[in-house]
Amino acid sequence: MNNDIILKAENLFFSYDDENSHSLNGLSLEIKRGQKVAFMGSNGSGKSTFFLCCNGIHRPSSGTLYFNGEPVTYDKKGLLKLRSKIGIVFQDPDNQLFSASVYQEISFGILNLGVSEEDAKKEVEEVIEHLEITPFRHKPTHSLSGGQKKQVSIADILVMHPDIIILDEPAAALDPKHTTMVNQIVNRLTEAGITVLMATHDVNYAYEWADEIMLFHQGKVLMHGTPADVFSNKAVLAQTNLEAPAVLELFDSLCMKGILKPALPVPKNLQTLEKYIADVNINTTHYGGISPVNMKTKKAILAVSFGTSHDDTRKVTIDAIEDSMRQAFPEYPVYRAWTSKMIIRKLKNRDNLIIPTVKEAMEQMMSDGITDVLVQPTHVINGIENDLMKEDALTYRDSFHSISFGDPLLTTEDDSHKVIAAIADEFSHITEEQALVFMGHGTTHFANSIYAALDYTFKDKGYPNFFLGTVEAYPSMESLKKMLKAYQPKEVVLAPFMIVAGDHAKNDMAGDDPESWYSQFKDEGYEVKAVLKGLGEYEGIRRLFIDHIRAVDR
Ligand SMILES: Nc1ncnc2c1ncn2[C@@H]1O[C@H](COP(=O)(O)OP(=O)(O)OP(=O)(O)O)[C@@H](O)[C@H]1O
Questions:
Q1: What is the SS3 string spanning 478-492?
Q2: Ligand 1 — pocket residues by CB below 6 A?
Q3: Cα of 44 to ligand 1 centre, how many Å?
Q4: Which value does ipTM take for this structure?
Q5: Higher-confidence position of 186 and 377
Q6: Residues of 530-542 as b/e, b for ≥16 C-beta within 10 angstroms?
Q7: Which helix H or strand E contains 166, and what residues bound it?
């Protein structure tokens, strides 16, 4: 037998009553020397019964138990040897402690082994000191606290110099302070090279402590392996009524949210997870998948737009933005994706033009061997479109080394200032007698508030005659009318606050329909002029998108 294996069970059967119900039901397992093994599984799955077979309290009806490679014989000599080398610390110390004084209790076993009183005294004193029993060593055992009794019952076993210590739920009924103390003692046992087998229902403790988990189910081992392997097997956990440890659950959900990279080593404890979180740059836009080891980086930009069916405006807006990306990043191929399925369908039917969705573009990049994706939306705000686009892209997070997201146009305060500067540049000819009124789209998403904020910032930055309203939300046409009445311009100049000058700009803003902004402002008595120029046509806006890519290109 492999010398590393200290204990081996081969097809053990054991029944308490009739032969039809087996508490051990063909149990086989191997324990490596010096390991910390957590025995887990639902109540009644056979853990304690196995332990009792290990020190001869029970004898398997069939099968063989090997200790240090030798089959265990359950005769008197065999049992004496077994009990001196494999010690059990029972769950309830009252089932174990029977001597009146602490000293008598600890020395009982070793004296029984035939060790001289003098040598026994030396051993007992050592254990008393090692396990910090000195402060209560002169108390009668019955008056000790639960934690102190546990210390003495571990001392009982430790003094025999066992090769294996079995602990049955060592922390049961202990308060947190005593649990920590017992855990520290257990750590010292393993540091001393003793093989420790522990039955526990505490998944969090077992996950962090154990080298190996033995998962019992109906009298045999259902699964064994490293804590990470066992606890990530959801089917096996469900079958044995176990929950995943909190640290794993938390790690999983932080990966799902894209906050941590799934490629990180699975954290062994909360401290490691805390470190991962501390290392996250809260402004991070990076999501990672496969390991970069030995992988050649091939980066690409994915420009994601809502889309437009108007070719004239597309050329000077979306196409122009993508062209400036190519110019700014000549080393990266630029891919296109649109988020409006309706427009994609329309172009396919009308012009037989195929525009990829985000998912299709991600697939294409995968097959082109792209390893790192810089996704740059041309969306104006961080609204629903942007959220959904990110979700779609992140479906592929495990297929790329990294996926990074540049911000939509209006994200930070600095963006607002730069957008205003770009507008001021574009409309430097606007006089005080004119009101420049922008039409934004508007949304029910909370990000809509940026429109009103920008309108406020126009004024704050010295442009009292710049106004921003939305077609679908606040600020509405009604608010604009009130504000213009207060400003009293001679002429209203309308312009879209959208990347393209498409349907909304052409119809809702500049159309002849009585409901259009053009008609409504006319009805209010203003001279009205419409400038059909999408934001994508402004050089300053295109530059801002490039800045946003640069910010996430690491
Ligand atoms: N003294 C006994 N007499 C009869 N049946 C018993 C006895 N002890 C245990 N059993 C039965 O043997 C089976 C295995 O019990 P065992 O105590 O070994 O399980 P366990 O995994 O240690 O459970 P727990 O997590 O509750 O400690 C159960 O069906 C139990 O009812």
A1: HHHHHHHHHHCCCEE
A2: 16, 23, 41, 43-49, 216
A3: 4
A4: 0.94
A5: 377
A6: bbbbbbbbbebbb
A7: strand 164-168
Looking at per-residue pLDDT, the higher value among 82 and 467 belongs to 467
Q: What's the CA gap between 410 and 424, in Å, rounded?
A: 16
Instruction: Classify burial at 257, counting beta carbons within 10 Å of its beta carbon; exposed 0-12, middle 13-18, buried 19 or more.
Output: exposed
Quick one: which of 164, 156, 154 has its CA closest to 54? 164
CA of 153 to the centre of ligand 1 (A): 22
Of 21, 49, 201, 213, the one to substitute when testing ligand 1's pocket (max ligand atoms within 8 A of C-beta) is 49
Would you state the structure tokens that stand for residue 118, as one six-digit string?
């003098």
Quote the CA–CA distance of 407 and 548 in Å, as a whole number: 6
Return the amino acid letter for 519. Answer: S
Q: What is the DSSP letter of 140?
A: B
The pLDDT of residue 291 is above 90: no
Buried b (16+ CB within 10 A) or exposed e, 383-397: bebbeebbebbbebb
Structural domains present in the chain: 5-239 (3.40.50.300), 246-280 (no CATH), 287-405 (3.40.50.1400), 413-536 (3.40.50.1400)
Q: H/E/C letters for each residue in 303-357?
A: EEECCCCCHHHHHHCHHHHHHHHHHHCCCCCEEEEECCHHHHHHHHHHHCCCCCC
Contact 394, 403 (CB under 8 A): yes
